[in-house]
């Protein structure tokens, strides 16, 4: 009796999410092309814009200053709780700046707000941002007409490189509005 041969099954092709250019109003209005299922998080404020992505991802734009003054690059590179890569030149919406990757050090202290090791990069206000274990971060820091803008994202370690590539594709479509 012949052995039945299993029929090959086709993998379903995912339905792409349509892209659309959206305008986002905040301290520095912008237009950016994002998938339709990316939404503005309602918890931002006039100084912070947060775009939420349906897979536990966010892209945050803020003009909030660092808590102790100085620049965001200084805050990131001088934080003892972080391991920081080399800043590299970048451009967002025609505005030059730097991009820098960073992650939580293995010996970071427990945060009261999270109950686990973390670093509160932006500790308060609408721009609250916490660096967690196994979630590398990238910051893009630009100076738009005398205002420092911090753009942040993170992802689980295994997905970080792919997520940053997607984020940079999206940021390459950004134009600043008047």
Overview of the structural elements:
- The chain has 178 residues and is mainly beta.
- It contains 2 helices and 13 strands, in the order E-E-E-E-E-H-E-E-E-E-E-E-E-H-E.
- The protein has helices at residues 72-78, 160-171; strands spanning 19-24, 30-35, 39-40, 48-53, 57-62, 82-84, 88-92, 95-104, 118-122, 129-132, 137-144, 147-154, 175-176.
- A hairpin with a 7-residue loop joins strand 3 (39-40) and strand 4.
- The longest helix has 12 residues, at 160-171.
- The chain is globular, with a radius of gyration of 19 Å.
List the helices and strands and how they pair.
Elements: E1 19-24, E2 30-35, E3 39-40, E4 48-53, E5 57-62, H1 72-78, E6 82-84, E7 88-92, E8 95-104, E9 118-122, E10 129-132, E11 137-144, E12 147-154, H2 160-171, E13 175-176
Antiparallel strand pairs: 1-2, 2-13, 3-4, 4-5, 5-12, 6-8, 7-8, 8-11, 9-10, 11-12
